[in-house]
Design a protein that fits this description.
The chain is built from 13 helices and seven strands. The protein is an alpha/beta fold. The chain has two domains: 177 residues, Vaccinia Virus protein VP39 (Rossmann fold), CATH 3.40.50; 103 residues, Putative methyltransferase TM0872, insert domain (DNA polymerase, domain 1, Orthogonal Bundle), CATH 1.10.150.170. The protein has a seven-stranded mixed sheet, with helices on both faces. β1, α2 and β2 form a beta-alpha-beta unit. The longest helix is centred in the C-terminal third of the chain and has 16 residues. The N terminus is likely disordered.
Amino acid sequence: MNNVNTEHIPVLAKTLAEQIKLPQDAVMVDATIGQGGHSEMFGRTLGPEGVLVGLDVDKGSVQRAQEKLKGLKCRVIVLNANFAQISEQVHKQGIEKVDFILADLGVCSAQLVDTETGLSFQTNMPLDMRMDKRLTTSAADIVNYTDEKSLADLIYKFGEDRASRRIARFIAEYRRNQPIMTTEQLATIVCKALGQPAQKRRSKIHPATRTFQALRIAVNRELENLEKLLDSAVDLLKKNGRIAVISFHSLEDRLVKNNFRENTKRDIYRIITKKPIVPMNEETADNPRARSAKLRIAQRQ
């Protein structure tokens, strides 16, 4: 992995520390351990009888988290696994129930700059987007082999881009002559479709942002996996245990909100955050990637 030293700043860390107080013998699962920032913060409050289980689909993140957390007093278990398998992975460790589940759904800063991951249009890199290299379909496969209508539907559904049909048409026209294999090629095509140059653009948001988001969600099956995590959490949490989810776009946030609401109606959860908690101005000034973060917390009844 390239550029592995990029520092990832854990989002809403101070807020989480105020909202979640863990006993020394707590069992917590960080479903997206990343570089271990959130886990280190909570892990420091755990004693030798506490357990911290971390999951991540990215092998590089697993290695970096293991390194970062090795000084903690609690038992640390970091696994290269998708959080869709949270129950099975936790039960394999001989743990039945947990006190706290945390899922930060944001892309790790190191993954954005990693040329092997192919997530960024700021640097030219292969159009891959697989967080987990065990997945067989890359973003290049989708862009080059999906029919135009299905591609437009995918960009509209996962990217919420109203210009999805026009973007798909420009992609289809381009790939007739040559395959789209790099992030720069795709970003340029989307900018042309929208009639917006990548430089000197009107908005702070790059014109290709929504298309790249749509492809990343599709490649990594992000919404499907999030649903599995949310469903599994119900049986995994102890009485009074809490689940905290930090989402970064409306599709994720809607899933979390609806899941918490449904489980509250069924007297399974009590919602702690009546409205999602968002970062303060000071935090977004220090970490611009935090600006779209929304934190929701629920407690098991």
